Amino acid sequence: MSILRRTGWLLLGALVIVSAAGIAGLPVYVAPQRDPVRAADVVVVLGGGPDERVEVGIALAEHGVAAEVLLSLGDEPDDPRMDRYCGGRFPFRVSCFAPDAARTDGEAREIVRRATIYGWRHLIVVTSTPELSRARHLVGKCFDGELTMVAGATGAGAKYWTWMYVRESAGYLRAFVNQRCEAVVAARPGVAGAVPD
């Protein structure tokens, strides 16, 4: 077989694999399960900077869906653009946190820790569309209450979606390698060991 023909077959094989991965990822990254919104204990917005997802979380609280919004600062805990949310005045409580690991699993640990402390039974979690399924998996494997997943910001274009497929696939791989739940603070308000904001 000539080098040209072999190269052609290799390219065709690579195209088939990439196409199959793209199609398989559609229901996970592009069109994940979204839940109907109803009243909850708290709206949690996963990190990613002050973008549309933060506005979605704030708007949900403004519409009376929850009396508290919990914002993750993600990998930019000193981002001054978040000051208007974290230090802002709202008719509901807004809390901000920097996760111990600036990834969704670090955010999930802090969310579950606070849910344990404050007795939250129903969370609304706002994140980007490609991250919705993985966030549901990570938070849900340690939180035994009800989760409502809401999509906020979503980018566009081939470059964005290629990066999201790679990033989210790597995140799923990490999540499946680490199947255990991290230790969670089992304190309640007023009990020694409870950690306030």
Describe what this molecule looks like in 3D.
The relative contact order is 0.16. The longest helix is centred in the first third of the chain and has 28 residues. By secondary structure, this protein is α/β, with parallel strands linked by helices. The radius of gyration is 19 Å and the shape is elongated. The C terminus is likely disordered. It contains 6 helices and 5 strands, in the order αβαβαβαβαβα.
Summarize the structure.
The protein is 44% helix and 13% strand.
Taken as a percent bin, the fraction of beta residues is 5-15%
Number of strand segments: 5
**Helix vs. strand class:** alpha/beta
Tell me the span between the first and last alpha carbons: 67 Å
Helix segment tally: 6
Summarize the biggest pleated sheet.
5 strands, parallel
Oligomer: single chain
Average residue-wise pLDDT: 81
General form:
elongated
Helical fraction: 40-55%
Radius of gyration: 19 Å
**Numbering strands along the chain, what is their spatial order in the largest sheet?**
3-2-1-4-5
How would you describe this structure in keywords?
197 residues; alpha/beta; 6 helices; elongated; disordered C terminus
Task: Annotate the secondary structure layout.
Elements lengths: L2 H28 L11 E4 L6 H11 L5 E5 L10 H4 L6 E5 L6 H15 L3 E6 L4 H9 L5 E6 L6 H20 L20
Parallel strand pairs: 1-2, 1-4, 2-3, 4-5
Helix pairs in contact: 4-5
